[in-house]
Amino acid sequence: MRRKMLLVNLRLFDGEGGAGATAAAAAPAAEGTDTGSEAAEGQEAAEEEPAQPTPEERKTAYEKFKAEYKDLYSEEVQSAINRRYRENQQLHQQLDSYGQLLDLLGARYQVSGGKVEDIISAIEKDDAMFEEAAAKEGLTVQQYKDMLNLRRQNNQLLKAQQQAEQIRQRDQTWARWNREATECQQQFPGFDMDAECQNPEFVRLLGSGIDVTTAYKALHFDEINRGLIATAESQTKKKVADTIRSGAARPSENGTGNGAAAKLKVDVWKLSKEEFRKLQDRVDNDEKIVL
């Protein structure tokens, strides 16, 4: 919506020179109309696009946040530091044990520098190390080494195939879970896959091969059952009420009847479950019910 600005000269009718003042005021008014409209439009644009905070303002807000939640922030930071420290400690222990092994092997084969490649090369050149094992297999030392190398390559290939199969199965499982989650949500609108995955029992059921819908039903049996009962009761009440209304509105045969059937003397919504069950049985038997 465009806004128009009207400039009025309050001294327009001050005696003599009124006409000149009129002419003098007309020009500013005409010019002020476009200028005022542009200013109003600029103001509206400024209101629609709020200014983004500057880096200094963001930094100030962040420092204020840390100060306000200092205890929680410190606790989270300390937890991350402790976790990283434990991981580093485990890594250092493994490296220390590997270092001791490399030192022993280096001393055995007189290899300095602790390079893994040099130690492996020295071991492969140690024929005496393989003589006894080769003799048991009925092979020469070189044949035995070739056999070991072939086994190592086969093991590496087998591990690669196993990893590829695991990845394939994982992708298929995720695709199946996503499909089943969509079907479950269509049946139960309140179902939330992300929320259910926070439940370890739900994840355990999925991991054992149970489909998403069955797992959800197993963990929410009481909740689902209550909803089904409430829905069944509501549908039964509606069906009985519709049947009663239909029977009451039906015209009497041969002109008999005095129209009293159109009056409902019983409040259907106040009937007990047992009374509804009996009425439902009568309705299912195509019995005409008039209350």
Features:
291 residues, mainly alpha, 11 helices
What does the secondary structure layout of this molecule look like, with pairings?
Blueprint (H helix, E strand, L loop, with lengths): L17 H31 L6 H14 L1 H39 L7 H9 L2 H11 L3 H47 L5 H4 L3 H8 L4 H8 L1 H29 L23 H12 L7
Question: Main sheet, how many strands, which sense, barrel?
Answer: none
Number of strands: 0
Q: What is the radius of gyration computed over CA atoms, rounded to a whole number of angstroms?
A: 44 Å
In whole angstroms, the N-to-C terminal distance is: 62 Å
Oligomer: single chain
Order of H and E elements: HHHHHHHHHHH
Low-confidence blocks of residues: 15-33, 255-264
State mean pLDDT (0 to 100 scale). 75
Q: Percent range for helical residues?
A: over 70%
Estimate what percentage of residues fall within beta strands. under 5%
Describe this structure in words.
- By secondary structure, the protein is mostly helical.
- Helix content is 73%, strand content 0%.
- It has 11 helices and no strands.
- α10 crosses α11.
- The longest helix has 47 residues, at 141-187.
- The radius of gyration is 44 Å and the shape is elongated.
Concise description?
The protein is mainly alpha-helical and 291 residues long.
